[in-house]
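Q: How would the structure tokens look for this protein?
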Amino acid sequence: MPGLSSSAFSGLSLANFTAMMVIMRNFSIVFSVASLCTTLTVATSTAGCGNALASGITTGGTGSSNEVNFTTTKGDPRTFLLHIPTTYTPDIPRGLIFSYHGRGKSGSQQERSSKLSESEFNPEMLVVYPDGINKEWQGDPKAKTDDVGFTLDMLDSLGKQYCLDTDRVYATGMSNGGGFSSNILACDPKASKKLAAVAGVSGAYYQGTTEDDCKPASVPIPCNGRTPFPVLEFHGTNDGVIPYAGGPRRHRCLPNIPHFVTDWAVRNDLGSTNHSKSLYDGGVTRYTFGSGSSAGLTTHYKIEGMGHTWPSAGGNYSNIDATPLIVKFFNKACFDGI
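A: Here is the predicted structure in token form.
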């Protein structure tokens, strides 16, 4: 991931240097954490920078997001919620998170469960909560829609209206939405070059075309996306919908979670050896792959006793809050590839 070293400051004009200082000051939250990017990266802004918010557009937390009716380039009508933080100004490029709901749910439900619109967890990035056709996403055994195209169309349209940093575009999701983020978007040759990182939560990572002879520990996981690619994953050991151990489901094969995560680590050239750390009195184990500047490029949280849910401390048999960890992981990752 190319960045800007300190020696490069000597080639900047005064105007560019000043602009950089503004970006650094306003993104102190972002750059205060250790970065998967080896050096500081200058924000790459979209055409929407400088545009005032349109009349009627609201900012704020959960419940204040904007309902958007959208038509894809294929002419398909779609809908999504758009969260804009109260800190938004049209002259500072912001990160953007796509957050996809689980099968049978909606964008508004995903906003409430993920809490990504809350300033406590996400003070400065915009968030999109799309609605799936038939409440499902590409990658589900029954889905027939082009949700990769839908995502790329949304990104293009939003970049023309709002001030976005194209090096800081991310995707996360729950269940089918997690599978769409980490198994479909991240493995798409075009979409993966628009995203800086993904995070799957209780993800449904369906493989193959049949559940016959399903081998969860070795089922092939084809992927044509860019590498390296930062991937974060959360999964509970008591998930009765998308089991941690994988197995046949709905005429497809689910890989077990260690196989899915290790496959990403190998694809990222990190090897199959991980570093584990017990957290929360043994209730959570964190597995990280890689070392040095690549440490944690692939990370998995195994949550003992948690079912099929979004981890939220004290709320659902989980000791861990996924949302702040996802935002921190995203803030570490940038991609200068768009």
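The longest strand covers residues 164-174.

Residues 1-40 have pLDDT under 50 and may be disordered.

Upvote if useful.
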